[in-house]
Design a protein that fits this description.
TIM Barrel, 10 strands, about 290 residues, alpha/beta, 8-stranded parallel β-barrel
Length: about 290
């Protein structure tokens, strides 16, 4: 009587995994030759990074009835990734006072990532002044990155922003750089790179459905792109605009119903609903 030979599949599992990895690398190499920004991670089909809130926190920190007016961001950070842009005085404005020191401590201990606001006047501000602001944030605010506002968008300013980018990254704690031109910018800002992320649309919400992203946007991870909308009164529109942002490969969002001359000086009245809308997108793996 012939004995039945049992074939174990266990030894084959590592081989199958190895073949899959080799195939992913090979596919990635093919696409890399076509598009230098394509990665084999994309070929392997990994999940997108989570949608994040990028909050321009241009609000003076206060303790009101024993509670910080910055606490809503800490509560949000328990549900979604939150990055807060700190802007004491159109920049650091010197060392933080006791109110800012306390507010920053609340955010940072609560899991909110903080980055410091620095104006660049579209590449025309003296670069040493920009670096001085970066130094102040690094030395005294314990932030984790820098937000370069009034960002240029043309290739003529690449060297300017490249120098600032390298300077920021030379600081041990400053590991994130976001440029805000508020509109389309030359692809070289990402491919060189001279920024980690960019705000590619900052405007009234009603303009968002009409906006068309640059063709290159879909070549990159969505974590390279951010969106800021103001004057969005309707909560349902806020939710639909977040959904549209996801479809357009945007990884950072912030939407507010504030429509004043400075729409970033208060959190939206529907902040909790906005947090839930972002959380829902993440729970669906989008």
């Amino acid at each position: 009587m012939l004995s039945k030979t049992r074939i174990s599949i266990a030894p084959l599992a590592p081989m199958a995994i190895g073949i899959f990895i080799l195939l992913a690398i090979a596919v990635g190499a093919i696409f890399k030759s076509i598009d230098p920004n394509f990665s084999s991670v994309q070929a392997a089909g990994t999940k997108q990074a989570k949608l994040q809130a990028l909050v321009p926190l241009y609000i003076y920190p206060q303790i009101i009835d024993g509670r910080s007016n910055w606490s809503p961001l800490v509560e949000a950070a328990r549900k979604i990734p939150v990055v807060a842009i700190i802007n004491p005085n159109s920049g650091p404005g010197g060392k933080p006072n006791s109110d800012y020191a306390q507010g920053l401590k609340i955010l940072q201990q609560g899991g909110v990532k903080t980055i410091g606001y620095v104006a660049t006047n579209y590449g025309k501000r003296p670069i040493e002044q920009v670096k001085a602001d970066v130094d102040l944030y690094h030395a005294h605010f314990n932030v984790q990155g820098i937000f370069l506002d009034e960002g240029a968008s043309s290739p003529q300013q690449l060297n300017y922003y490249g120098e600032i980018y390298r300077y920021i990254k030379s600081k041990k704690r400053l590991q994130q750089v976001i440029v805000n031109p508020g509109t389309h910018l030359d692809e070289a800002y990402f491919s060189k790179p001279v920024t980690d992320q960019a705000v590619i649309f900052e405007n009234f919400g009603k303009e968002w459905p009409k906006y068309e992203t640059s063709p290159y946007v879909n070549k990159y991870d969505r974590q390279r792109f951010a969106l800021m909308l103001h004057g969005v009164i309707d909560r349902a529109k806020m939710q639909s605009y977040i959904e549209l942002a996801v479809k357009r490969n945007i990884g950072y969002v912030y939407i507010t119903n504030d429509a004043d001359s400075n729409p970033w000086d208060s959190l939206p009245s529907y902040w909790s609903a906005e947090v839930e809308a972002i959380r829902n997108q993440n729970s669906m793996g989008r």
